[in-house]
Amino acid sequence: MPSQEPETIDRYTIDTAPATGFHYRLALFTGGGKFIDGYTLGVLTVALAVIPPDFGMTPFYAGLVGSAALFGLFIGSAFIGPLADRIGRKRLYTADLILFLAAALAQFFVQSPSQLFVMRLILGIAIGIDYAVAPTYLSEMLPKRLRGPLLGSLAEIWRIGFLASVIVGYFMRDMGPGAWKWILVTSAVPTALVMLLRLGAPESPRWLVRQGRDAEADAIVKKYINPEAGIHDLIATVGHEQGHKRSTWEATRILFSKQWRSRTLFAGFFWIAQATPQTAIFTFLPALFVALGLAGGLGPTLIQNIFFAVGGVVGMFLINLISRRKMLVSTFWLMAISILALVVLPDPSAAVVITCLCIYAFIEAIAGNLQFVYPSELFPTSLRAAGVGMAAAMSRIGAAFGTFVLPLVLASYGVQVVMIGTLCLLVLGALVSQKYAPETANRGLQEEPAPDAH
């Protein structure tokens, strides 16, 4: 049973505490997982472009390998990540990187596309666990005013990881027939570093209160967040969230119950509409540029990734200046406009192609900051890891499908069909968001009531 609310009320709560170095360090350590994710997906972009023909990487296998990590991410975030709502955030926060490190190193020894697919699938499972656990953990430790910028920074760190991998791969691409293996295995370096940095992380006080472990929660808040901060707000609201020992299947059932399904489906769909074209396009960007008539696709790929990284920085500044809903809807329409020229022009010039895709990358990076902010704010503590994990899992279904079919569609129907599909999905994302997106900005995590069951 939870202990009684203390007679003396502390000056601060987690939501109202001043920013400290701990908050920023935790954001950095959490962001390290997103750097690894971006690096892992980005490094494949260059590796696929330099794999020797005798390895057997047909368009079918290219799509399969390109989407493997995304399928794995679905498994990890939907079925393993929600364990954090039962066993705590801390354990999985480090354990997922151990699995990732082993699979990253094993990529060097693969002998066939099917073996590479298996290793990429395992990498994806580890990433998926981190998608469910890391943003949930960070959101529960941050004060209200830092939650938007620092959770949004996770998406920017993802982009920096993606860009870093393209740069590393670009300079390693001429190392010989086995260069692609060395390129892929470089992801083990940042993984080992982040794994060491995460050792010793404290448990989430919000989760501890859900278990009735109030004294432990209060001690962590005072040690890591502020000596004058306490958990009286958590104790006062803990009764609103029952069933903290739910299994993964029970949590999933509740997420899709009448009470929560609108938020679950919205969180998953907006992420699908953002991530599907972005992941598919960026994975096969060199081939896409070549199909659009630009020789030497790696150069334009590097340029677009720079715009991608810069856009994320801009998004970090905008996220507390614009409401969540307005930011989501407007960026969908702007991305659709940026792709429109590549749909209507039968033979666009190189300048038009690069400009349109760079604008798309810039806007998508701004919008992508919401992927780790919005879902964390839509669900209560007892469902947060499950809700974030489910949204991430749903997004990866779309991203995996798009990444698998893009090389096949590109080879069979041409680049314009790819652009038409991208445009349609972005317009649909804008329309759905206009109708269903709730506003969550400037609310404490404990303030969010259960939505009406309509």
From TrEMBL:
It comes from Microlunatus phosphovorus (strain ATCC 700054 / DSM 10555 / JCM 9379 / NBRC 101784 / NCIMB 13414 / VKM Ac-1990 / NM-1). Keywords: Membrane, Transmembrane, Transmembrane helix. It is found in: Cell membrane. InterPro entries: MFS_dom (IPR020846), MFS_sugar_transport-like (IPR005828), MFS_Sugar_Transporters (IPR050360), MFS_trans_sf (IPR036259), Sugar/inositol_transpt (IPR003663), Sugar_transporter_CS (IPR005829). The keyword Membrane applies. The chain crosses the membrane at residues 60-80, 92-110, 116-138, 150-173, 179-201, 265-296, 302-321, 328-345, 351-374, 386-407, 413-433. Residues 26-441 form the Major facilitator superfamily (MFS) profile domain. It is a multi-pass membrane protein. One of its GO terms (molecular function) is carbohydrate:proton symporter activity. Coiled coil: none annotated. Belongs to the major facilitator superfamily. Sugar transporter (TC 2.A.1.1) family. GO terms for cellular component: plasma membrane. It holds the Pfam family Sugar_tr. This is Putative major facilitator superfamily transporter.
